[in-house]
C-alpha cells in the first residue's frame, strides 16, 4: 500500500465511516435485519432524530436498505446491502484493535 | 463475533477512530515518522490548529509518539507507537472497501 500520498477513495470511505454513530449502527446491522427500536436499543445516548438522520444517509449511500412490510401496523426493517456487508472486515478489525488496546 | 450486544471496547475504539481527520493522520503516519508539515501536506483543508489538537489527543491516547531532536532549529517528529501501528489492518480494510465502493 502506498502511504506517501493520500487516496481520494480512502478519504471518501473515512468520511462515511467517521460520522458519529455510523460505526455503531453498522455493527448492529451485521447481526441481520433490524427494526428502528432494535438498533436504538443497542446504542446508548443516541436520539431518535440522530438515528433517523443517519439511516437516511446510509440509505442514500447505498449501505443500508429499508424495507416496508405492509402489515397492520406497518413494519419497517433495515438491513445492510452488499456494499454495507462488505464493511465487515473494517468492523472486525476495529473490534480486534479495541479488544487489545482499549 | 457477537453482534447482539454492543461492546464497550468497540465503542471506545470507534470513538477514537471516528474523530474527524484521525483516520487520515494515522494513514499518513503508517508511512513512517513525519514532521508536522509533512502530515499537513497530505491532508487538504485541515487547519494547523486542528492538526495540533488531534496530535495532542493521539499522543495522550498512546497512539502517537512525539520526539524532539535538539538541533538548531529544533526538529520535531511524530510516529506511531505499537498501539498506533496495530491500526494498520483497520486502515487497510477501509482502503480496500474504499477502492471497491467509492
3D structure, described in words:
Two copies of one chain form a homodimer. In chain A, a hairpin with a 5-residue loop joins strand 1 and strand 2. The model of chain A has no long low-confidence stretch (mean pLDDT 96). With 102 residues, chain A is mainly alpha-helical. Helices cover 55% and strands 12% of the residues of chain A. A two-stranded antiparallel ribbon of chain A has the order 1-2. The two termini of chain A are 27 Å apart. The first copy, chain A, is globular. The A-B interface holds A 1, 3-14, 17-20, 22-24, 27-28, 30-32, 42-44, 83, 86-87, 89-90, 92-102 and B 1, 3-14, 17-20, 22-24, 27-28, 30-32, 42-44, 83, 86-87, 89-90, 92-102.
Give a short summary of the structure:
2 copies of one chain form a homodimer. The first copy, chain A, has 102 residues and is mainly α. Chain A has a single domain (8-101), classed as Winged helix-like DNA-binding domain superfamily/Winged helix DNA-binding domain (Arc Repressor Mutant, subunit A), CATH 1.10.10.
Keywords:
transcription regulation (chains A, B); 6 helices; transcription (chains A, B); HTH_HxlR (chains A, B); about 100 residues; Arc Repressor Mutant, subunit A; homodimer; Transcriptional regulator (chains A, B); mainly alpha
Task: Give the strand line-up of the largest sheet of chain A.
Answer: 1-2
CATH second-level architecture of chain A: Orthogonal Bundle
Please state the average pLDDT score of chain A: 96
What is the fold named in CATH at topology level of chain A?
A: Arc Repressor Mutant, subunit A
Overall number of strands of chain A: 2
Tell me the radius of gyration of chain A. Answer: 15 Å
Which structural class matches the secondary elements of chain A? mainly alpha
What is the makeup of the main sheet of chain A? Answer: 2 strands, antiparallel
Largest interface: A-B, 44 and 44 residues
- State the end-to-end CA separation of chain A: 27 Å
Order of helices and strands of chain A: HHHHEEHH
CATH superfamily of chain A, please? Answer: Winged helix-like DNA-binding domain superfamily/Winged helix DNA-binding domain
Number of domains of chain A: 1
Domain HTH hxlR-type (chains A, B): 7-102
Pfam families (chains A, B): HxlR (PF01638)
Keywords (chains A, B): DNA-binding, Transcription, Transcription regulation
GO molecular function, one term (chains A, B): DNA binding
Amino acid at each position: 500500500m502506498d502511504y506517501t500520498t493520500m487516496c481520494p477513495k480512502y478519504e471518501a470511505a473515512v468520511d462515511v465511516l467517521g460520522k458519529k454513530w455510523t460505526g455503531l449502527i453498522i455493527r448492529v446491522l451485521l447481526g441481520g435485519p433490524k427494526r428502528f427500536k432494535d438498533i436504538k436499543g443497542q446504542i446508548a445516548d443516541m436520539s431518535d432524530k440522530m438515528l433517523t438522520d443517519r439511516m437516511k444517509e446510509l440509505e442514500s449511500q447505498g449501505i443500508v436498505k429499508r424495507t416496508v412490510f405492509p402489515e397492520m401496523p406497518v413494519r419497517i426493517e433495515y438491513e445492510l446491502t452488499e456494499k454495507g456487508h462488505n464493511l465487515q472486515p473494517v468492523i472486525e478489525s476495529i473490534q480486534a484493535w479495541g479488544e487489545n488496546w482499549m
